[in-house]
Amino acid sequence: MILLEARNVTKRFGPHIALKNLNLTVSQGEIVCLLGANGAGKSTMVNLFLGFLKPDEGTIVIAGRPVSDDLRAARARVAYIPDQVNLFPLLSGVENLTYFAELAGRRLTVGEATVLLVEAGLNGEDATKRMGDYSKGMRQKVGIAIALAKQADALLLDEPLSGLDPLAANDFGAHIRLLRDAGKAVLMVTHDVFRAREIADRIGIMKAGQLVETVDARAVESNALDRLYADHMRGELR
Length: 238
Ligand SMILES: Nc1ncnc2c1ncn2[C@@H]1O[C@H](COP(=O)(O)OP(=O)(O)OP(=O)(O)O)[C@@H](O)[C@H]1O
Ligand SMILES: [Mg+2]
Hints:
The protein is α/β, with parallel strands linked by helices.
């Protein structure tokens, strides 16, 4: 089932066209990674799915319903993980998760919160330490747990790997894939061509507000994807 869908979406900011007639789908149990130069429109796409922005033309559809029909219902189905998970540094992972889950309408016991954090890849012992002492990778995991607590069907991640060391990025990717296996639809923006290929099922390359290429991650070698990306950015492919 298609969970996230952009149909002929155009988004303008004043005279600037951030997205041009863009079509994109993400199905249940699928990870789609978006690559593209700075300013290509990737975050704009994510913000449209989150309901933070409205398209000027076209339709954003979540689980078969246009977002404009019922914004609240649409928002309940998606969870967002930003590149910087900024939480309360004096509170522990468990406390932060409990607080943010409650904002999303879900009351968690300490036990439930700990289980979610462990599912997100955090060490159970670290879960009770104050977050001010967490590494970036650990904070990102709390971000995943908050998304899990919301029981959303789709996860939207905007550059979640930036600043993670290779092992932490690997670990993060592995957890995102587990969530995919559990049926979540995942749309992830990244600048990391190598990780995109490792993590995604499909990879979209965006340029100047358009999706110029979509490739099956398993069907493309890392070097070939690198070259394809570079060729698009240099304008040698259309
Ligand atoms: N709120 C806004 N007001 C005006 N222009 C905006 C706004 N948001 C985005 N833009 C413009 O739209 C274009 C696409 O921006 P967007 O943030 O989607 O790019 P991106 O692909 O996420 O880039 P990056 O890789 O740098 O994060 C850019 O030219 C940007 O300046
Ligand atoms: Mg961006």
